[in-house]
Design goal:
Layout: H1 3-23, H2 26-38, H3 42-70, H4 74-84, H5 93-125, H6 136-147, H7 150-169, H8 173-199, H9 204-212, H10 221-234, H11 241-246, H12 255-283, H13 294-304, H14 309-342, H15 347-367, H16 382-409, H17 412-418, H18 423-449
Helix pairs in contact: 1-8, 1-12, 2-10, 2-12, 3-4, 3-9, 3-10, 3-12, 3-16, 3-18, 4-5, 5-7, 5-14, 5-15, 5-16, 6-13, 7-14, 7-15, 8-12, 8-14, 9-12, 10-16, 10-18, 13-14, 14-15, 15-16, 16-18
The protein binds phenylalanine.
Length: 450
């Protein structure tokens, strides 16, 4: 292999790592499993897979393409491409709404990142030396204790945000991303161990049926909307993040092939998380519909009752925190970049200002688990409200803007050429990007509003 092609290979690898680092996070493990449980299992899983393939993939490709052609931040890339193609500058709203969504998401994401940090410590120092010997009730009590204490939640949420701010402010995100090369496979191995443990519980079959044998009668418009929202959330779509990453992509990188790789990794990790978690849920008589606490009340039971569990528990929550951090830095980046460009703030001040604003909003989110649990908007507490507005509405709408722009507004020939498509594959792309993906998003919306 020549030196040049090796360099290209390694830059492509770096790109896949960065994109996967953003995509793989709490969404795959914490959010995916609790949504599967809350939405009745397999029907949700299958709709989610369909959304990832038919909506997620074309939108991921579209966002990267806009970034690669625009060579700038999301707003400026959209402005530039609109101008080049004589289109309305209003298209840049796609970039702006993405930045706002990332801002809102990080506020509650950091609260869960804080739970993960707290559990990293508890897995070695808990009252009963980690989770050792605890049953589901004991673990449940620890978790309720955490949720019931705004002070403790604030401490861990703050710690998590401080880490994110330090990493982004000092510009060391690259180092973190390359560490992902070892951390991510380690996380996968740990989940395989957990799935192996699940097989010994006698409830593995039940869990598999729950996840993969659908009861379509349970499917509602709300479930489909949740599945679509999860597809966007887990792939970091509709936030301008992938768009920003696209601006670093070399001309030679095959967008569709790369998107397939990132999506397979991301989806594989989510499915594995479900396979690891649900046997433990059923074996301990826990409710799959537990809600956002699902992994925090189930996994420690397994760690507390298996050989070497203390160490595995520590490693698991450490790796989960790490995965959460690599996603969180990609969520802070757009806000910081925008502040840096539009105000006189330096990088460090922009990171501080943006980070503190997000942290403050996170305080409101964490109080919805205790003192503000009765403060409801449209029947949702603040945490659920932030999650719902972003994942179910802002992300799909922004993503819709990106795919409509690429599929209908950019010169068709240059797009299919850039994607290396011709003949049958070109027709397939046009069918999916022009019709299936956008109509899918619109139908899911309309259906959920009815
Ligand atoms: N995709 C990340 C996850 O699954 C979360 C995230 C969303 C990160 C949006 C960046 C942008 O955890």
């Amino acid at each position: 292999m020549s030196k040049l092609s090796h360099a290209q290979w390694s830059s492509k690898m770096t790109f896949i790592l960065a994109a996967t680092g953003s995509a793989v996070g709490l969404g795959n493990i914490w959010r995916f499993s609790y949504l599967v449980g809350e939405n009745g299992g397999a029907a949700f899983v299958l709709v989610y897979l369909a959304c990832v393939a038919l909506v997620g993939l074309p939108i991921l490709v579209a966002e990267w393409m806009i970034g690669r052609r625009g060579q700038a931040n999301p707003i400026n890339s959209m402005l530039k491409l609109s101008k080049d193609n004589k289109l309305s500058p209003l298209w840049s709203l796609v970039g702006a709404s993405g930045i706002l969504a990332a801002f809102l998401i990080l506020s509650f994401y950091s609260v869960i990142g804080g739970w993960s940090l707290n559990y990293t410590l508890s897995s070695v120092t808990g009252a009963a030396s980690g989770f050792s010997g605890l049953d589901a009730e004991g673990v449940g009590a620890i978790f309720s204790g955490l949720l019931g204490s705004p002070g403790t939640l604030t401490l861990w949420h703050t710690l998590f945000m401080v880490l994110v701010i330090l990493i982004v402010g000092r510009g060391v995100t690259k180092g973190l991303e390359s560490a992902a090369k070892t951390m991510m496979p380690a996380l996968v191995i740990l989940m395989l161990v957990l799935a192996g443990y699940g097989m010994t519980t006698g409830h593995f079959g039940e869990a598999m049926a729950f996840m993969f044998s659908p009861d379509w009668s349970a499917l509602t418009g709300g479930t489909v909307l949740a599945a679509m929202g999860q597809a966007f959330f887990t792939l970091s779509l509709g936030m301008g993040i992938m768009l920003a990453y696209g601006s670093y992509l070399g001309e030679d990188v095959n967008l569709i092939g790369t998107a397939r790789t990132v999506i397979l990794l991301d989806t594989g990790i989510a499915l594995l998380a479900g396979i690891a978690i649900f046997p433990i849920v059923f074996a301990n008589g826990l409710s799959p519909g537990e809600g956002p606490g699902l992994i925090f009340v189930t996994l420690p039971v397994a760690f507390g009752n298996m050989t070497g569990g203390a160490l595995l528990g520590l490693a698991f929550f450490l790796l989960l925190t790490f995965a959460a951090l690599t996603s969180a830095i990609s969520l802070l980046e757009p806000t910081v970049e925008m502040l840096e460009e539009r105000t006189a703030l330096s990088r460090v001040s922009a990171t501080l200002v943006g980070g503190i604003a997000i942290w403050a909003l996170g305080l409101a989110a964490l109080m919805s688990f205790n003192v503000w649990d009765d403060v409801l908007f449209f029947g949702l507490n603040i945490f659920d409200l932030l999650d719902t507005i972003t994942a179910k509405f802002m992300l799909p709408l922004t993503g819709l803007g990106a795919i409509l722009f690429v599929a209908w507004r950019l010169d068709r020939q240059s797009v299919t050429q850039e994607l290396g498509l011709s003949g049958g594959t070109e027709t397939l792309w046009l069918l999916v990007a022009r019709f299936v993906a956008p109509i899918g998003v619109i139908v899911v919306f309309v259906n959920s509003l009815l």
